[in-house]
Amino acid sequence: METFDTIRTVLAVRSFKDTPIPEPIIQHIVEAGRLTASGGNSQPWHFIVVRDKETLRQLGQLARTGPYIPQAPLAIVVAMDRNPLAISDGSRAIQNMILAAWSQGVGSNWVGYNNLTEVNPLLGIPEEVSVLAILPFGYPAEAVGKGQKKRKPLGEVAYKERWGKPFE
């Protein structure tokens, strides 16, 4: 899929087929996160790839917004070293992984937000490292959106030269 088509069509997926994701696609997704730019090239991220069904079940219980995590064949937990740019850098890595997955027909969604301390002991993550998000990945159980998004018109969110002068 072309980059812009991937961006134009990606939508949150919260229901997954019980189909394993091939290893080369998983590698592609993780690599997309690793290759993300970061402030000062600090690369503050750590990606824990989880496929164990019991661990996925527990992650779904720990993340209030992710009860569907156990349906996914895998999840990637994004953990961050503590530094001033970590949330920004980690968010960029998350978006890259979601887009890389979508370009391969694999859906995902961002679960949780930087308050997932219960995940640390479950996955052996050191206390000084914070969990930013959990990303369940899988093939969508049903067609999602068909490329249609409900977004504000460009003229309402982008401006030319100065605030209020629509960019069209």
In short:
The protein is of the alpha+beta class and 168 residues long. It has helices spanning 3-9, 23-34, 53-62, 86-102, 119-123, 154-157, and strands spanning 45-50, 74-81, 107-108, 129-138.
Number of helices: 6
Overall 3D shape: globular
Biggest beta sheet summary? 4 strands, antiparallel
- Low-pLDDT ranges: none
Beta-strand residue fraction = 15-25%
Give the quaternary arrangement of the chains.
single chain
Query: Which structural class is indicated by helix and strand composition?
Result: alpha+beta
| C-alpha Rg (nearest Å) | 17 Å
Strand order of the largest sheet: 1-2-4-3
The average pLDDT is 94
Please report the distance between the alpha carbons of the first and last residues.
Answer: 26 Å
Total beta strand runs: 4
Secondary-structure element order, N to C: HHEHEHEHEH
Q: Share of helix among residues?
A: 25-40%
Question: Could you explain the architecture of this structure?
Answer:
It is a single chain. Helix 2 runs antiparallel to helix 4. By secondary structure, the chain is of the alpha+beta class. Helix content is 33%, strand content 15%. The protein is built from 6 helices and 4 strands. The chain has a 4-stranded antiparallel β-sheet with strand order 1-2-4-3.
